[in-house]
Every structure is written in structure tokens, then in C-alpha cells.
Design a protein that fits this description.
Elements (H helix, E strand, L loop, with lengths): L1 H25 L15 H32 L5 H36 L5 E8 L8 E9 L6 E9 L5 E6 L15 E7 L9 E8 L4 E4 L3
Helix pairs in contact: 1-2, 2-3
Length: 220
């Protein structure tokens, strides 16, 4: 009975120490600043989430290692109790190794995802560059996304000098919209000015990939 009471007392002290360590460890972590809505940074959100999870797993593993050690030390010659203590320590160590490996994998994935850049818009052209009402203009642009990511939308904004849209046109890379060959990253389409009054107009091109990264080329 004395041995059991001694074990309980030691375990209680260990719990207090672990709780104190928990407060110190978690004091080093911070949640995203905004409590609701989408995070402003995918990288920061992922790092915060994995840090909290890893911290919890490490503290839990340490607790089990200590508890396994207590069981082993106070087994008092009981082989079953000693073996149970060893298993507890072994499983906790395996948990630490798995947690460390998972953290490394997540870090690699986060780095790959956050290195994806917005689409690049180059070689923009309009032909002809001017004409009377009813003129059909051909608009093309070369648009490239990060490796492994596809372009979702490419929109042309035909604007008045005050930057209000008078029309929008979707560009395609399918070989059927004055864009050359399909899948060559050259996007194109035509726009007929119709009954639009004569005057200067501005053209902006915006492109977004499937991950929501967007870029805009103004006044082409």
C-alpha cells in the first residue's frame, strides 16, 4: 500500500511539472490574428496548426515516457509491470518519431504550396490598335502559371478612361479563338466594338489559377 501511495504521489508531482511545462511551451505558439474568416497567409496558418499539434503530441509523449518510467522503477520485481512500463516508453518514443517525421513532411508540402506564384502575363497584343465603331479587335496574351497548376480564368476588361468596364471578354487557349495552338499558353479572343462611341479605351487582362492566385496586366 505504501508503494502504491508513493507511486501516486510521484505521478501527481509529475503531472504538475508537465502542466507547468505545457503552459511554457504553448506560450511560444500563437494563433492567427483574425479569429474568423480565411487566414491571410496559408503558410502562417499551416505552421501555427502544425506547431500546436506537434507541441501537444510531444507533451503527451513525454507524459507517457515519464509514466512508463515510473511503472518500470516501481515494478518491485513484478515482471508484468516492468514489461508494461517498457512498452509504454517504447510506444511513446515511436509516437515522437512519427510526429517528427510528419512535421518534416508537412513542412516540405507547405514550402511547395507557398512557393506557387501568381500567373505571369506577357506578350500582350491588340490588333488592330484602333478602328471605328464596329471594328473587331483580336486580343492575345501569353499566360503561364506555376508548375503543376492550371489557369482557371483569363478575363479582358474593356474600360472607359475612368476605369469603368464597358465589356468583358474571356480569353481561351484552345486553338479556336485566334490563340494559335491549343495548350501553348497563348490565350486569345476577339471583341467587336459594336455601337461603342468613338474614343480612347483601356484594356486590362486578369488571370487566375485554380488555387486562386491572380495577376493583372493593366493598360495593354
Amino acid at each position: 500500500m505504501k508503494t502504491k501511495n508513493k507511486i501516486n504521489s510521484v505521478f501527481f508531482i509529475v503531472i504538475v511539472i508537465v502542466m507547468a511545462l505545457t503552459s511554457q511551451v504553448f506560450a511560444g505558439y500563437s494563433l492567427p490574428s483574425q479569429p474568423a474568416g480565411l487566414p491571410s497567409s496559408l503558410e502562417n496558418a499551416a505552421i501555427n496548426a502544425t506547431s500546436w499539434l506537434l507541441g501537444f503530441i510531444v507533451l503527451l509523449a513525454v507524459l507517457f515516457i515519464v509514466w512508463g518510467g515510473i511503472k518500470y522503477v516501481f515494478s518491485a520485481g513484478n515482471k508484468e509491470s516492468a514489461q508494461a512500463g517498457k512498452k509504454t516508453i517504447t510506444y511513446a518514443l515511436i509516437g515522437l518519431i512519427v510526429a517528427g517525421g510528419s512535421y518534416a513532411m508537412i513542412a516540405v508540402i507547405v514550402d511547395d504550396v507557398t512557393n506557387i506564384k501568381e500567373p505571369i502575363i506577357t506578350s500582350t497584343a491588340i490588333s488592330p490598335t484602333s478602328g471605328p465603331p464596329g471594328t473587331t479587335f483580336t486580343i492575345i496574351a501569353t499566360i503561364t502559371a506555376s508548375a503543376g497548376v492550371d489557369i482557371a480564368t483569363t478575363i479582358v476588361h474593356i474600360q472607359n478612361p475612368d476605369e469603368t468596364d464597358i465589356d468583358t471578354v474571356t480569353l481561351y487557349d484552345d486553338g479556336a479563338h485566334s490563340d494559335g495552338a491549343a495548350g501553348d499558353n497563348v490565350y486569345g479572343n476577339t471583341w467587336n466594338s459594336g455601337a461603342a462611341p468613338a474614343g480612347p479605351y483601356f484594356v486590362d487582362i486578369s488571370a487566375c489559377d485554380l488555387l486562386g492566385n491572380c495577376n493583372e496586366e493593366e493598360n495593354i
